[in-house]
Amino acid sequence: MAFDYDLFVIGAGSGGVRAARIASSHGARVAVAEEYRVGGTCVIRGCVPKKLLVYGSHFAEDLADAKRFGWRTEGATFDWAILRDNVAAEVDRLEGLYGQTLGNAKVEIIRQRAVVAGPNLVRLADGSEVSAANILIATGAWPSIPDIPGAEYGITSNEVFHLDKLPKRAVIAGAGYIANEFAGIFNELGVEVTLVTRGDKMLRSYDQEIVEKLVGISREKGIDI
What we know:
Layout: E1 5-10, H1 14-25, E2 30-33, H2 40-45, H3 47-67, H4 80-104, E3 108-110, E4 114-118, E5 121-124, E6 129-137, E7 169-173, H5 177-188, E8 192-196, H6 208-220
Parallel strand pairs: 1-2, 1-6, 2-3, 7-8
Antiparallel strand pairs: 4-5, 5-6
């Protein structure tokens, strides 16, 4: 039976992009469907933009340390909008490179939501259907919103990179490494941070000595755990 594609990938994150590119390099006819942006969580709304925020927030400590080395830093101010927009610009650049990589590998990018409609069949958001010998579902994960009163007033790590302005106070629900990174970022940028965890310790799977050191440093910096 003839198919439109040898491989159809649903989701253009790290796994989907890699699979599509490698399959195409072996001569397969490949398409990848993505409803949002090419690059996935790590590039678009995870590791990369978060680390840039980490780097930006570290300058608060650098400025404080500089005073002890004779630098006059009075009047230094922070503009969230500049950091936010520069981070967004870097994400745009990286997304373009991911798209370019797929294009160079002769992978067709379909910028629509796609769902499996049957054996070897994919339905796109515009209603059209395509067939594929193999279908790879690489849709990743999505933040879970707790079913509690007031949940609609919260945001997830997806939205945090697009804040119009920094809040005066922030409560972070969770005590994994991502929660701790954002707690540190906001704290350095002048936000009053409270970190809430349901258990008796943070970073449960991490070395206890490291966790205790982190908790001590966080509290010294003014993060309420």
